Amino acid sequence: MFVLSLLVSGLAWWLGLYLVARDPAKPLLWWAGAGLAGYAAVVVVPHPVLLGVPALAWTGAILLLARPEAIRWWIFAVVPFFAASLWVPWIVLLPLAVATALAAGKRTYFSLVGVMFGLSVAAFVLDLVPTAVALPSIGFDLLVFGVLVAVTDAVEEGQAIRADMLRSLVIAGLTAVLFGSQVLLFDGPEVLAYTTVAAAIAVQVLANPLAAAVDRLAVPAVAAERAELREAAEALPRQRPLVTEDEAEFARLTRKALSHYGDLGKLVASPLIALTDDGPPLDRAAQLKSMLLTSIQRLKPADGDFGTSDEWRHYNALYFYYVKGIRPYSVRTKRQDLDEEDRRALRWFVTQVPERTLHNWQNAAARLVAADLVAGVGSA
Fold first, then answer.
1. d(CA 270, CA 284)
2. Is 217 buried (19+), middle (13-18) or exposed (0-12) by CB count in 10 A?
3. Tens-digit pLDDT profile for residues 209-229
4. Calpha distance 312→360 (Å, rounded)
5. Alpha carbons 362 and 294: distance in angstroms, whole number
6. Could you tell me which of 40, 127, 256, 312 has the fewest CB atoms within 10 Å of its CB?
């Protein structure tokens, strides 16, 4: 029984960290990862209050998938709900039920798994079935949910998932077995086995972020270059074939590549990398970046360096946002290195262009860039 619990806990811990490591900037992956990590802790200490962590985290993940606008309210509500669960453990089921209902019709598969998870949590919290039955049921639901989140993220990014996930699982599993078996072999305490396996998995799954942190301290002059090389190597198993016949999908992939314009490591994983010549991954990513820039520049009107008329909107929406890195609706845009043209563009975006309008312009401009890329491929 202990070995099975150790296996289940380690699997949940690995998947949770894997989701976060895929892209630490995505809140969905953080919510789902927190739920799996919380379940790993529940396996070690099976207490109803601890079970509130995966329930509340999963609520946040489902809201992001089904009703993203509601997540800002949930961020403030999650702490009071967890505090209330100290006295009434089953209260965590209420927001989970609401989120699952909201997901129905939009994310049916997440809604179904949410129902399964809610029933398993209710059975555990209300002590309707033995812990030995309830906890594995919860674990199965959470693992299915984690895999669905990973697949959803990969589809959104236009990436393959199977090879990347399998590679991470095999490396983390071998490391966990190597170190965890030593604790079991010498009859060490159970808590030491759990912590050893968790540490071994964390070191492997979070190897890149840990290496990046060390580089910033030890070799700051080359930290960015080393991080770029590591990210490119990690991106290679995520590449998938490019299909140019589906115009809508090609435009979506182009939009995603534009959003990663300044990150060569992420461009390596883009299916659009197939449009470039054979060569080292980072060289091909740099070539793709140059192709995107050329297509963006073709959108620029001939009259002047900057304008605000309708004919300028597609160029402005892509060039200043992605190429120049201006974020008009973020406080981080308050930079000192903006030239006069950049400052004029920034003032125009902030005072004249609503954020939703800019998003729509970018989508339309991405379709134009996609058409230009396809035309370039056809003429090559």
1. 11
2. exposed
3. 899 899 999 998 888 889 888
4. 14
5. 16
6. 127
70 within 8 A of 63, measured Cβ to Cβ: yes
Helix 2-22 and helix 27-44: axis angle, to 10°? Answer: 170
Digit-coded pLDDT (tens) for 98-151: 777 777 666 656 666 666 666 566 666 666 666 666 666 667 777 888 888 899
Tally Cβ neighbours within 10 Å of residue 115.
17
This prediction has a pTM of: 0.87
Task: Answer positive or negative: Cα dihedral of 183, 50, 203, 9.
Answer: positive
- Asked if 295 contacts 285 with a C-beta cutoff of 8 angstroms, the reply is no
Mean pLDDT of 23-50: 86
The residue type found at 145 is F
What amino acid is encoded at 337 in this protein?
Answer: D
